[in-house]
Amino acid sequence: MDAPVKKKKLGLKDRYAAMTRGLHWDTTYQPMEKVFPYDTYEGIKIHDWDKWEDPFRLTMDAYWKYQGEKDRKLYAVIDSFAQNQGQLGISDARYVNALKLFIQGVTPLEYYAHRGFQHVGRQFTGAGARVAAQMQAIDELRHFQTETHAISHYNKYFNGMHSANHWFDNMWYLSVPKSFFEDAFTGGPFEFLTAVSFSFEYVLTNLLFVPFMSGAAHNGDLSTVTFGFSAQSDESRHMTLGIECIKFMLEQDPDNVPIVQRWIDKWFWRGYRLLTLVAMMQDYMLPKRVMSWKEAWTMYAEENGGALFKDLARYGIREPKGWKDACEGKDHISHQAWATFYQHTHAAAFHTWIPKEDEMAWLSEKYPETFDRYYKARFEHWGQVEKKDGRWFNQVLPMLCQVCTVPMLFTEPGDATQIAYRETSYHGMKYHFCSDHCQEIFEHEPRKYVQTWLPVHQIYQGNCYPGDINPESPGDSPVREVLRYYKVKGGEDNGDFNTSHDRRHFSKWSGRTEDDGEKNHA
Amino acid sequence: MRETVADFEAKLPPDGLKTLGPYPLRQADTVDRFFGNWLTYLGWDNHLMFSAPLCVPLPPDLPFGALVRDVLPELFGEHPEFEQIDWQRAQWFNSNQRFYPDFGKSLEDHGFGHKTLIRFRTPALEGIRREIKSGQQAF
User: Fold this and answer.
1) Chain A interface includes B87 (CB < 8 A)
2) Is the ipTM of this complex over 0.90?
């Protein structure tokens, strides 16, 4: 048969080379180091960028087609979820608080990640790494968008989502994710990749995505599950970038090893502190539980992470310094965080509650060493107070750690009855920390961390009041004025779940409450 | 003569921060920003109903007695053990350093400053009991 002779197409490998490395050129009007100053100032030595491996070999045109298909599927599901009143099918209205935490604290990080990867994509001189970073930048922007669209449906029916971006920039507990990312993208490009691609995406991401996405599946939230699937294939690409970047730096020059080790120590710990919020969500906010934080930590961090650091040992890399303390913390941090939010939830944009009896039993079972011994009596006491005198809130602002900005709620390693205090002095002022590891991060770069925007201190400086308030005398209820500045609607967005609009509305619309138990899943 | 950024940076202790240009010191919480008060952190050892130590702005001339009489009840008064505290027996710490307060003297007289951490321990009241008997509260 005569077939018309076509012009020969490039093979996959050549095509990839043409569409990535073939796009690179060296500058001639200006010296390279002036155009790309970020590439070298961190002290990382790169001798041959061509050694960078691109395991996915994805080109921009293929990427575009592939993501377009995923988006079409995702938006079809989101539409049908909305048309079928999917929000009425969730386990109970307490679940929505996990989504609030997600849209307030995780979604804005996608946007920050987008900015960070754009910066890296601009500043590296290696074309393979630049293309990977640029694609990831687009992924992150897309995640910000799809999460916002998926959750906007819930925003029509529930409180605590309407001003998520404003809250991210202002609210006390959201300084934790915000400062994490601002710390990362004000580092150089190699530190950013170690922080976000390696420590967060590669080592810790399963601890973020699995709890939220399986939590959504268990609690009847199809739209979030679909978003999760849509993002998952991107995440595996991101994780690959993380491990490739680490191996590349370590293989290029032995002088890079101590720099990378320090970054791994720092960013493992910062990521771990950030995950405190996830731990709490997983153990307390999901009406239908997936697995405990302790189980997730054991599986994803201790087992997978342990294997990873064994593998990296051949480069001279050891496990992060905070590793042992983090492993000890798996028995404690979710309870400590929920206790903190329980008492400060009048100043937060989601609801908290005392776990129900069967939920307490679940916690006792999952935390046999610690829950009954250290935490249960506290919740029982608050439950009794609530019945007798009304819901208790702590009206005084907590002391915060200068680095992670989490309230100083973590206890001393080896003693769960005593808060861990660490401090140092710098340039005539005291600085306080939650742990040895946060202190060490500070002491290595004090000029960076003396700038930390600590929400409690900002309130006392008068920077978190509406314009009509005199910060020196904010009136009889400073908290109320701060909430007004935060755009948190008192009695709607904040406070206990039991007295919330969310609870009342959901029960009215669905005919179900969280007390219906198993019936909810018939 | 006006101090240049370079002069100023030369006086700072060395640190590991790598930068592309000058990086002036910007301390976010200097004492001049708190309307004459000192940020003061207060923690009650082994008592975790207040899940973190608390932070309040206090005037440096506040007598220590007023701190105990007026401020602490506002902060910790809702703890079921608070009423039982015997202040004569309480142990006080400036961070980790034991001190013996004079109730008539001010915070400043005690040598405290902006961002001082004051901890107190109430030996008879253990908060979380290490061995919990049934029916006892532990926090």
Assistant:
1) no
2) yes
Looking at residue A75, what is its pLDDT?
A: 94
Q: Is B63 on the interface with A (CB under 8 A)?
A: no
Q: Which is more confidently placed, A413 or A4?
A: A413
CB contact under 8 A, A447 and B12: yes
Q: Number of Cβ pairs closer than 8 Å across A and B?
A: 153
Q: Is the pLDDT of residue A344 over 70?
A: yes
Q: Do the beta carbons of residue A181 and residue A113 sit within 8 Å?
A: yes
What is the arrangement of strands in the sheet containing B97-99, beginning at the earlier edge strand?
A: B54-58, B38-44, B116-121, B91-94, B97-99
With a pLDDT cut of 70, the percent of chain A lying above it is: 98
Instruction: Note whether residue B31 is domain-resident.
Output: no
Please report the DSSP string for A134-201 in residue order: HHHHHHHHHHHHHHHHHHHHHHTT-SS-TTHHHHHHH-GGGHHHHHHHHHHHTS-HHHHIIIIIIIII
CATH of segment(s) A37-508: 1.10.620.20
| Candidates B20, B23, B128; nearest CB to A37 | B20
- Which residue shows structure tokens 């960028």? A49
Better-scored residue on pLDDT, A232 or A176: A176
pLDDT band (50, 70, 90) for residue A277: very high
8 A C-beta contact, residue A146 and residue A71: yes
Round to whole Å and give the CA distance between A201 and A193.
10
Helix (H, G, I), strand (E, B) or coil at A417: strand
Instruction: Confirm if A52 and A241 have CB atoms less than 8 A apart.
Output: no
On whether the CB atoms of residues B18 and A43 are closer than 8 A, the answer is yes
- Note the pTM of the prediction, 2 decimals: 0.94
Domain around B77: 36-121
Whether residue B11 is contained in a domain is answered as no
**What's the confidence (pLDDT) of residue A56?**
78
Tally the residues of chain B.
Answer: 139
Total Cβ atoms within 10 A of residue A494:
23
Q: Which helix (H) or strand (E) holds A44?
A: none
- Which pLDDT value is given to residue A522? 39
Contact list in B for residue A376 (CB cut-off 8 A) is 138
For chain A, the domains span: 37-508
Q: Which of residues 372-431 of A touch B (CB under 8 A)?
A: 372-374, 376-378, 380-381, 392, 394, 396-400, 407-409, 411, 416-419, 421, 423, 426-427, 429-431
* Cβ–Cβ below 8 Å for A423 and B117: yes
